[in-house]
Amino acid sequence: MSSAHVDGTGGFGETEGGFAQRALAWVERAGNKVPNPAILFLALCVGVIVLSQLLDWIGVSVTSEVIQEPGGRDGIAYDDPALGPSDNGYLTVEERFEVKGLLTVEGIRFMFTSFVPNFLGFTAMGVILVAMIGVGVAELSGLIGALIRKLVAISSPGSLTYIIVFVGIISSIAADAGYLVLIPLAATAFLSVGRNPLAGIAAGFAAVSAAFGINVLITPADGVLTDFTNDAAQLIDPTVELDLAANLFFGIGSTIFLTIVIALITTRIIEPRLGAWDRSLADEDELAREEGPEIDEALESKGLRWALYAMLGVFAVVALLTLPSGAPLRNEETGEIIGSSPFMSSLIVIISATFLAAGLAYGKATGTVKGSDDAIGMITKSWATLASLLFLFLLIAQFIAYFDFSNMAQVAAVWMGDILEEMDVGDAPLLLGVIVVTILVNFLIPAKIAKWAILAPIFVPLMLRLGIEPQTVLAAYRVGDSPTNVLTPLMPYFALMVVFAARYQKDAGIGTVIALMIPYTLILTVVWIVFFFVWFFLGIPLGPGSPV
Known about the structure:
548 residues, mainly alpha, three-stranded antiparallel sheet, 66% helix, disordered N terminus, membrane
């Protein structure tokens, strides 16, 4: 373990190390001088209002094909895989995108009438509040701390990082649960073995977010991405029909590869540059809450057994509601469980209920939960810690709604796609162009499904005409979709990472998180692109029956 930085900083040392070390320290210092995130997003809202009006007066517009669901619901609005495709399939239609000013009559009316609906419709807010019911009880009862101690006890020092990263990558099967559960657990796990908890946050965030586009399993979002790809490809060849496993082999290979890369970045770059953690820089109240009360070892073992029984009980109930034919958590019409089904839509509720039941059982066995007042108090306390974050979410929701209303993101995406289409180059440069455009658009539209609804009708038909298979284009899109998630403040959970970091370094801000994540984004972007092209040139199938 390296020693604490000589300059007394809690993040990257500012007066030591080489150029990269000093550059990251400068990024952290400069980023933390940015106003409070709430003020920043308020300023961004004003900027969008002014810029949209200027572009409206100029008359900026583009025309492109987009994907819609019959009935008029625009495909680009989707970012909830649980909604899924309709039974009638998606439609590809031509649409004109014009930048709409927010200072027009329509724009002003939108800002005033949509303020509350924008906030209520901000998915991240509901997800966090529901998840924290269970996670808060599990944390404050001491269950989380006990689980971390067990994880550390059974893991070798060298394997802990790899376990956390791998679990973080595959957590996308449960949508956003990784952000709320895995990342704080990673910080606590690192802390429990004497490692810098900020490195744990960085490793967890990179795994959950920078590798969000791939998995060793088929995720809920894969169904929607595949449908969008099929509809776009059928503009050129009506016989094209990708299945859900079209990128499965590439996803498995990428998961293993990125697990190794992210773990190495954490242990070889992030931890040495952070140095030893200084407890005096942390929020002691938050640390006390995470570490939980001291529990006798025998009681702790009893509590973990009770927690296991409670968890199995929840699983049994969910199984009864899901597995039998006609069960209420199956899709009412198709009977499927994975994909568009109540079960997939309920994952956050199921996860929260599991943590709640396990936390209550653990607390009852160890004496940390003596009655309903204790349990409700834990939930209330966990929600209270989210107050500043909820206000920030209010402003982020407005900014995203204003940006979406203006059509500036859609215009930018189509414009970059048109530039790529006009380039007269070979297959590899075109696929690299798909990745680069996706990376750039991701800063404006982090939502994976919304972005592909715009880009698929641009890229897939173009590549198909040039002899590049749709599943290859989709794989290239996955490579460009995720690495920059950890740097864009438009990603709904970015603000939550600042909150997590502030637990261990009270002065942590946006700059702290950006400085932590820049090495991941730069290295993952480069090595994943190289990995993709090695896969491409070797001709390895991307999935069962899906040649590259």
